[in-house]
Amino acid sequence: MNESSKRSKPITLDTFWRGVWKENPVFVMVLGLCPALAVTNTTFNALGMGLATLFVLVCSSALVSLLRNVIPKQVRIASYIVIIATFVTIVDYAIHAISLELYNALGAFIQLIVANCVILGRAESYASKNRITKSVVNAAGIGIGFTFALLCLGTVREILGSGTILEYPIFGDAFQPWVVMVLPPGGFFVIGAWLLLFSWLKERKQRRVVQQEEAARAPG
To answer: Can you tell me the distance from the alpha carbon of 142 to that of 140, in angstroms, rounded to the nearest whole number?
Structure first.
């Protein structure tokens, strides 16, 4: 009874927004850090990986939801991986045909989308238990949240590491690029700074809520 009522809940803005912000894969759940650190040395690479992951996430969640009553429980994980791998192959060929430069920049991390725990986890915990419309909306939120996180990392690293945004120079000739930012250690520095910022914002919000509750309980 509880499970059926849970499934029948209507789609709301929170269904989408939770993935973008409240359950952001990188900044909240701290998942999918391998591509987040490896390919975000430029904004263009970050956007390409984010959109590729978004496509695979939405399409695989839709198909898993459609087949949720058909796939046997004993082979569900293997079936989900096959479904995800199918859409990863489509993305791989599409990127190769559209932009060889992006394809070479992303390298093996396109194929490794199959092993992204964000996608497989969403298929297992959400798409396999909800209708297609709700699964697609939630997957879109998660995918956009993941893309947003990659863009946050890629933009900062490109600005500091190259002095450009989408290869467009934004500083004068006197600017000295921080070479470390386009190297793997730069990814750790930037993601640490973003996690610190979002943690501070969350703590600040919680402190404000506590102060409001105390003010409401105060006499007079």
So the answer is: 5
State how far the alpha carbon of 31 is from the alpha carbons of 10, 71, 166, in Å: 27, 26, 26
Looking at residue 161, its pLDDT comes to: 92
Smallest CA-to-CA distance from 169 within 180, 179, 158, 178 is with 158
Could you tell me where the DSSP H helices lie in the chain?
2-7, 13-17, 33-38, 43-66, 76-98, 100-106, 117-125, 132-162, 184-217
Residue 166's pLDDT is 87
**Cα 209 from Cα 202, distance rounded (Å):** 11
Q: d(Cα 190, Cα 112) in Å, to the nearest integer?
A: 23
Asked if the structure places residue 7 within a domain, the reply is no
> Residue 2: its pLDDT value, please?
45
Render the burial of 146-177: b for 16+ CB within 10 Å, e for the rest: bbbbbbbbbbbbbbbbbbbeeeeeeeeeeeee
Q: Answer whether residue 138 is part of any domain.
A: yes
Examine residue 185 and state whether it is found in any structural domain, yes or no. yes
Domain that holds residue 195: 13-168+177-211
* pTM of this structure: 0.88
Flag whether 25 is in a domain: yes
With a cut of 50, list the residues of the chain below it in pLDDT: 1-7
Question: How far apart, in whole angstroms, are the C-alpha atoms of residue 65 and residue 45?
Answer: 30
Look at the chain and report how many structural domains it folds into: 1
Cα 168 off chain centre by: 25
Report how far residue 138's alpha carbon sits from residue 207's, in angstroms, rounded to the nearest whole number: 29
Confidence (pLDDT) at 104:
93
